[in-house]
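// run 5 | inverse folding | seed 20
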């Protein structure tokens, strides 16, 4: 028997043993304790109610509600740079925006996550819908791999047809295998459902694009934007048909200088100032339509 084959069998034996025990329904005895153990992982019930975050700010329910979504979290780090992880950087930005909005007053705020926890992708937009949000902002950061020279923020709005090949790849990466929640229109004809959802989504997309343009306008000279700033893609996190939403790519974790700036208190403050101003202008326009 060759040395290579012996090494292969050595590594394969434990795997084959565990597979055989699993197939036979056996547990593995622990000689020291004289017992057998089976590891079980509790799973949520299929009909478990969606956990909703607390809403901070005014108690007046007529005040507008903004839901801020810090991307990734928990075991999902998102994009990884040399010194920074996306999940940590975007949580800092999300908290800075929340604090700025609450400090200025008049707006209710909720966050899909306020710690290093994982929120299932399909639940993020559903949280905004369940809370009756007036605006949903998902904050992310990108990576250009080995190309550390790519910089600048970009803003995504929903489009069934991605605006570019890069946007299409991004949508595929972010959506993964998650199923997008639709609107409960039970009791009506399927063709009517499709029309109603499409009309609602079209109107919502127009408002989302209006808000995205406000971010660019208010951020000019303050934030660094990617040359292709406004983009559209079929992103699951934006597909609540009745909640205007944007996905803000704050910059590139793969660029050390930009990542450091985004993680700094000064960078977070600049972001929060611009975003809060854009939010207030947008909400004012919606409450006083021309």
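// decoded
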């Amino acid at each position: 028997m060759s040395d290579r084959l012996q090494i292969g069998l050595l590594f394969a034996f434990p795997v084959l043993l565990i597979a055989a025990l699993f197939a036979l329904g056996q547990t593995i005895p622990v000689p020291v304790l004289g017992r057998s153990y089976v590891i079980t992982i509790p799973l949520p019930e299929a009909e478990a109610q969606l956990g909703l975050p607390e809403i901070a700010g005014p108690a007046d329910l007529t005040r507008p509600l903004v839901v801020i979504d810090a991307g990734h979290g928990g075991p999902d780090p998102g994009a990884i740079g040399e010194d920074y992880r996306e999940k940590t950087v975007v949580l800092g930005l999300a908290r800075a925006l929340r604090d700025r909005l609450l400090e200025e007053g008049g707006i209710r705020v909720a966050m899909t996550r306020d710690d290093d926890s994982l929120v299932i992708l399909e639940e993020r937009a559903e949280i905004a819908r369940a809370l009756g949000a007036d605006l949903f902002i998902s904050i992310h950061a990108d990576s250009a791999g080995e190309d550390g020279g790519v910089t600048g923020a970009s803003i995504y709005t929903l489009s069934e047809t991605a605006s570019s090949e890069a946007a299409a790849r991004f949508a595929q990466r972010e959506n993964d295998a998650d199923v997008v929640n639709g609107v409960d229109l039970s009791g009506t004809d399927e063709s009517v459902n499709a029309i109603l959802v499409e009309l609602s989504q079209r109107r919502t997309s127009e408002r989302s694009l209006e808000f995205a343009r406000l971010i660019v306008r208010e951020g000019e000279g303050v934030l660094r934007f990617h040359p292709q700033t406004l983009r559209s893609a079929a992103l699951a996190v934006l597909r609540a048909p009745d909640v205007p939403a944007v996905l803000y790519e704050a910059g590139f974790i793969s660029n050390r200088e930009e990542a450091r700036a985004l993680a700094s208190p000064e960078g977070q403050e600049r972001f929060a100032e611009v975003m809060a101003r854009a939010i207030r202008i947008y909400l004012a326009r919606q409450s006083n339509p021309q």
